[in-house]
Design brief:
single chain, 225 residues, alpha+beta, 5-stranded antiparallel sheet, 4-stranded antiparallel sheet, 39% helix, 31% strand
Protein backbone atom coordinates (compact mmCIF):
# COMPACT_ATOMS: atom_id res chain seq x y z
CA UNK A 1 0.00 0.00 0.00
CA UNK A 2 1.39 3.36 -1.05
CA UNK A 3 1.58 6.48 1.07
CA UNK A 4 -1.44 8.00 -0.62
CA UNK A 5 -3.61 4.91 -0.12
CA UNK A 6 -2.51 4.67 3.51
CA UNK A 7 -3.43 8.30 4.09
CA UNK A 8 -6.85 7.87 2.45
CA UNK A 9 -7.55 4.73 4.47
CA UNK A 10 -6.63 6.47 7.72
CA UNK A 11 -8.75 9.48 6.78
CA UNK A 12 -11.74 7.25 6.01
CA UNK A 13 -11.31 5.42 9.32
CA UNK A 14 -11.14 8.69 11.29
CA UNK A 15 -14.19 10.02 9.47
CA UNK A 16 -16.14 6.87 10.23
CA UNK A 17 -15.19 7.08 13.91
CA UNK A 18 -16.21 10.76 14.01
CA UNK A 19 -19.55 9.97 12.35
CA UNK A 20 -20.14 7.18 14.88
CA UNK A 21 -19.42 9.50 17.81
CA UNK A 22 -21.66 12.19 16.33
CA UNK A 23 -24.48 9.71 15.83
CA UNK A 24 -24.12 8.46 19.41
CA UNK A 25 -24.21 12.03 20.75
CA UNK A 26 -27.28 12.84 18.66
CA UNK A 27 -29.07 9.69 19.80
CA UNK A 28 -28.28 10.52 23.43
CA UNK A 29 -29.52 8.56 26.41
CA UNK A 30 -32.99 7.89 27.67
CA UNK A 31 -34.44 10.05 30.40
CA UNK A 32 -34.33 8.77 33.94
CA UNK A 33 -37.39 6.92 35.14
CA UNK A 34 -38.86 8.84 38.09
CA UNK A 35 -40.96 7.12 40.71
CA UNK A 36 -44.21 8.60 41.98
CA UNK A 37 -42.42 9.60 45.18
CA UNK A 38 -39.71 11.46 43.27
CA UNK A 39 -42.32 13.29 41.20
CA UNK A 40 -44.26 14.26 44.33
CA UNK A 41 -41.07 15.41 46.08
CA UNK A 42 -40.11 17.55 43.09
CA UNK A 43 -36.99 19.66 42.67
CA UNK A 44 -36.25 22.81 44.70
CA UNK A 45 -35.56 24.84 41.54
CA UNK A 46 -38.49 23.58 39.47
CA UNK A 47 -41.86 25.25 40.00
CA UNK A 48 -44.95 23.08 39.51
CA UNK A 49 -48.47 24.21 38.61
CA UNK A 50 -51.28 21.70 38.09
CA UNK A 51 -54.44 22.44 36.14
CA UNK A 52 -57.49 20.60 34.85
CA UNK A 53 -55.90 20.22 31.38
CA UNK A 54 -52.36 19.25 32.38
CA UNK A 55 -49.33 20.28 34.38
CA UNK A 56 -46.83 23.14 34.02
CA UNK A 57 -43.18 23.21 35.07
CA UNK A 58 -41.16 26.41 35.33
CA UNK A 59 -37.44 26.89 35.80
CA UNK A 60 -35.11 29.89 35.60
CA UNK A 61 -31.93 29.80 33.54
CA UNK A 62 -29.17 31.25 35.75
CA UNK A 63 -25.52 30.76 34.77
CA UNK A 64 -22.24 32.17 36.09
CA UNK A 65 -21.43 33.39 32.58
CA UNK A 66 -24.69 35.32 32.48
CA UNK A 67 -24.12 37.00 35.84
CA UNK A 68 -20.53 37.90 34.92
CA UNK A 69 -21.71 39.32 31.59
CA UNK A 70 -24.48 41.32 33.29
CA UNK A 71 -22.21 42.75 36.00
CA UNK A 72 -19.53 43.72 33.47
CA UNK A 73 -22.15 45.37 31.24
CA UNK A 74 -23.57 47.34 34.17
CA UNK A 75 -20.13 48.59 35.24
CA UNK A 76 -19.20 49.51 31.67
CA UNK A 77 -22.56 51.24 31.13
CA UNK A 78 -22.30 53.31 34.33
CA UNK A 79 -18.74 54.33 33.49
CA UNK A 80 -19.71 55.55 30.01
CA UNK A 81 -22.81 57.38 31.23
CA UNK A 82 -20.72 59.12 33.87
CA UNK A 83 -18.05 59.98 31.30
CA UNK A 84 -20.69 61.33 28.93
CA UNK A 85 -22.16 63.52 31.66
CA UNK A 86 -18.68 64.90 32.32
CA UNK A 87 -18.05 65.64 28.65
CA UNK A 88 -15.22 63.13 28.22
CA UNK A 89 -16.78 60.62 25.78
CA UNK A 90 -16.45 60.55 22.00
CA UNK A 91 -19.46 59.79 19.82
CA UNK A 92 -19.01 59.36 16.04
CA UNK A 93 -15.39 60.38 16.45
CA UNK A 94 -16.21 63.69 18.15
CA UNK A 95 -15.83 64.68 21.78
CA UNK A 96 -19.20 65.50 23.32
CA UNK A 97 -18.50 68.34 25.72
CA UNK A 98 -22.13 69.37 26.23
CA UNK A 99 -24.30 66.26 25.92
CA UNK A 100 -27.98 66.57 25.11
CA UNK A 101 -30.74 64.12 26.08
CA UNK A 102 -30.52 62.26 22.79
CA UNK A 103 -26.85 61.47 23.43
CA UNK A 104 -27.89 59.54 26.54
CA UNK A 105 -30.77 57.92 24.60
CA UNK A 106 -28.40 56.68 21.88
CA UNK A 107 -25.98 55.35 24.48
CA UNK A 108 -28.80 53.53 26.27
CA UNK A 109 -29.99 52.06 22.96
CA UNK A 110 -26.46 50.81 22.28
CA UNK A 111 -26.48 48.78 25.52
CA UNK A 112 -29.90 47.16 24.99
CA UNK A 113 -28.65 44.02 23.16
CA UNK A 114 -25.86 43.53 25.71
CA UNK A 115 -28.33 43.62 28.59
CA UNK A 116 -30.64 41.22 26.73
CA UNK A 117 -27.79 38.70 26.41
CA UNK A 118 -27.17 39.00 30.15
CA UNK A 119 -30.86 38.59 30.95
CA UNK A 120 -31.07 35.56 28.63
CA UNK A 121 -28.50 33.71 30.77
CA UNK A 122 -29.67 34.93 34.20
CA UNK A 123 -33.38 35.70 34.58
CA UNK A 124 -34.83 34.00 31.48
CA UNK A 125 -37.35 31.28 32.26
CA UNK A 126 -38.57 28.07 30.67
CA UNK A 127 -42.23 27.15 31.08
CA UNK A 128 -43.11 23.62 30.02
CA UNK A 129 -46.79 22.68 29.72
CA UNK A 130 -47.77 19.02 29.32
CA UNK A 131 -51.23 17.94 28.20
CA UNK A 132 -52.52 14.75 26.63
CA UNK A 133 -52.46 16.31 23.15
CA UNK A 134 -49.65 18.85 23.23
CA UNK A 135 -46.22 19.68 24.63
CA UNK A 136 -45.78 23.46 24.85
CA UNK A 137 -42.46 25.09 25.63
CA UNK A 138 -42.18 28.80 26.32
CA UNK A 139 -38.87 30.61 26.81
CA UNK A 140 -39.03 34.23 27.92
CA UNK A 141 -36.15 36.67 28.46
CA UNK A 142 -38.65 39.29 29.62
CA UNK A 143 -42.47 39.24 29.59
CA UNK A 144 -43.65 38.90 25.97
CA UNK A 145 -40.05 38.62 24.72
CA UNK A 146 -38.99 35.12 23.72
CA UNK A 147 -40.25 32.17 21.70
CA UNK A 148 -42.78 29.35 21.96
CA UNK A 149 -42.51 25.80 20.57
CA UNK A 150 -45.23 23.17 20.42
CA UNK A 151 -45.19 19.44 19.72
CA UNK A 152 -48.15 17.16 19.11
CA UNK A 153 -48.09 14.29 21.58
CA UNK A 154 -48.89 11.10 19.72
CA UNK A 155 -49.16 7.57 21.03
CA UNK A 156 -45.40 7.44 21.59
CA UNK A 157 -43.46 10.30 23.22
CA UNK A 158 -39.74 9.66 23.51
CA UNK A 159 -37.62 11.71 25.93
CA UNK A 160 -33.83 11.72 25.78
CA UNK A 161 -30.85 13.81 26.81
CA UNK A 162 -28.90 14.35 23.60
CA UNK A 163 -26.51 16.75 21.88
CA UNK A 164 -28.20 19.36 19.70
CA UNK A 165 -25.32 21.69 18.87
CA UNK A 166 -24.79 23.60 22.13
CA UNK A 167 -21.34 23.75 23.71
CA UNK A 168 -20.05 25.02 27.04
CA UNK A 169 -16.33 25.76 27.35
CA UNK A 170 -15.94 24.09 23.93
CA UNK A 171 -17.44 20.86 25.28
CA UNK A 172 -20.75 19.49 23.92
CA UNK A 173 -23.66 19.62 26.35
CA UNK A 174 -26.89 17.65 26.19
CA UNK A 175 -30.32 19.18 25.82
CA UNK A 176 -33.69 17.75 26.81
CA UNK A 177 -35.14 16.29 23.59
CA UNK A 178 -38.83 15.43 23.29
CA UNK A 179 -39.80 13.56 20.12
CA UNK A 180 -43.14 12.36 18.81
CA UNK A 181 -44.62 11.57 15.40
CA UNK A 182 -41.29 12.13 13.66
CA UNK A 183 -40.80 15.65 15.07
CA UNK A 184 -39.00 16.98 18.10
CA UNK A 185 -38.35 19.99 20.31
CA UNK A 186 -35.29 20.48 22.47
CA UNK A 187 -34.39 22.89 25.24
CA UNK A 188 -32.36 23.51 28.37
CA UNK A 189 -28.85 22.78 27.14
CA UNK A 190 -27.37 25.28 29.63
CA UNK A 191 -29.49 24.23 32.59
CA UNK A 192 -27.71 22.36 35.42
CA UNK A 193 -27.49 18.63 34.78
CA UNK A 194 -29.69 17.66 37.73
CA UNK A 195 -32.47 19.99 36.56
CA UNK A 196 -32.27 18.66 32.99
CA UNK A 197 -32.49 15.09 34.21
CA UNK A 198 -35.40 15.93 36.48
CA UNK A 199 -37.37 17.71 33.75
CA UNK A 200 -36.73 14.87 31.30
CA UNK A 201 -37.87 12.39 33.92
CA UNK A 202 -41.03 14.41 34.58
CA UNK A 203 -41.94 14.40 30.90
CA UNK A 204 -41.31 10.66 30.63
CA UNK A 205 -43.36 10.02 33.77
CA UNK A 206 -46.28 12.06 32.41
CA UNK A 207 -46.47 10.35 29.02
CA UNK A 208 -45.16 6.95 30.04
CA UNK A 209 -42.60 4.87 28.18
CA UNK A 210 -42.77 4.81 24.41
CA UNK A 211 -43.81 1.35 23.18
CA UNK A 212 -40.99 -0.62 21.62
CA UNK A 213 -41.56 -2.53 18.41
CA UNK A 214 -40.48 -6.12 17.93
CA UNK A 215 -37.18 -6.45 16.17
CA UNK A 216 -37.63 -6.67 12.41
CA UNK A 217 -41.36 -5.83 12.46
CA UNK A 218 -41.27 -2.04 12.39
CA UNK A 219 -38.49 0.40 11.66
CA UNK A 220 -36.99 2.00 14.81
CA UNK A 221 -38.18 5.47 15.78
CA UNK A 222 -35.76 8.11 14.47
CA UNK A 223 -36.62 11.76 15.24
CA UNK A 224 -36.03 14.44 12.64
CA UNK A 225 -32.96 16.64 13.23
Amino acid sequence: MGLREEFLAKFARLKAEADTRQAAMAAGREAKVLSDEEVARGHPKVKVESGFQGVCYGVRLGTWFGWFWLVFTCVHCVALFYGLSQGSVKMNGRMVTQPDWWHFALLALFYVPFFLVGFAFTIARYRLTLTDELVTLRWRILPYLGWTSTLRAGDAVKVTLAFRGSRENKKPVDAVVVASQGKEIHFGAFLPVDIKEHLAGLIRHYYGDAPTADAGSVAPFIPNP
